[in-house]
Amino acid sequence: MAGEIVLPPLKDAAGNKVNPDQIMRTPYIAGFKSGWFDFLLSTVHIKFGEDERADPGRLEEIRQVARFLANRLTQTGTWSRNMILLGDFNIFDTDSPAFTALTDAGFTIPNNIQSLPVTNVGVKPRKYDQIAFLLGGNPDVKPLQAGVLDYFTTIYSDAKFPDYAPQLVKADGTMPGNAKSYYRNHWRRRQMSDHLLMWAELPIEFADPYLQAKAGP
Predict the structure, then answer these.
(1) Any residues with CB less than 8 A from the CB of 155 and at least 6 apart, and which?
(2) DSSP-derived secondary structure letter, 177
(3) pLDDT tens digits for range 160-210
């Protein structure tokens, strides 16, 4: 299963159907199965809005997506009862209303993901990126491991600057005046991303609990 999320009509106070504002960047959604574990995965890039923790537009987009997906899991014929929602939510910190807007819909962000280093490259440390779970089909599943890949210390490290120096051409075709500064603050962010890569490892083998349940007490 693969597609994009289009929010359905809502009912206003008078009971009339009205079309909601759609998400600015339409989220993708796809179904996967690995081993004994099937799940839906949706990736989002929530709009930033104003530089404040509780930007109304950002909060509304998070609420809309989270509530829609949570409701989807309860519907007859849904592809899977397990949902993983991830991406750039532009959440400033775990105490912000934007974080609460995600968890209020039933999603959880395990402690080993909440405790990860921040993934934004900017000066201010912020929890923009998240991996959230709503696992109705396998409620006991928890990430085995989680981490952040800092490719600025591996792929695009300062030590590898000489390898990339010949490629440091600006958009207008000219060479930067300070190649090292251009490499560190501009070029390498646009080769990969200005966010670091967050990952999580999940269990997929449930043969033992399945057999134990079949065997009975």
Answers:
(1) 192
(2) S
(3) 999 999 999 988 989 999 999 999 989 998 888 989 999 999 999 988 888
- Distance CA(97)–CA(95), nearest Å, equals 7
- Spatial strand order of the sheet with 82-88 comes to 2-4, 28-34, 37-45, 82-88, 129-135
What is the sign of the dihedral through the CA atoms of 74, 76, 82 and 84? negative
> Cα–Cα distance between 84 and 99 in angstroms, integer?
15
Q: Taking residues 88-105, report their average pLDDT.
A: 94
Q: What is the reported pLDDT for 126?
A: 93
Q: Would you state the structure tokens that stand for residue 68, as one six-digit string?
A: 């829609």
Domains of the chain and CATH, by start: 2-143 (3.60.10.10)
Separation of alpha carbons 89 and 92, rounded Å? 9
Q: How many CB atoms lie within 10 A of CB 54?
A: 14
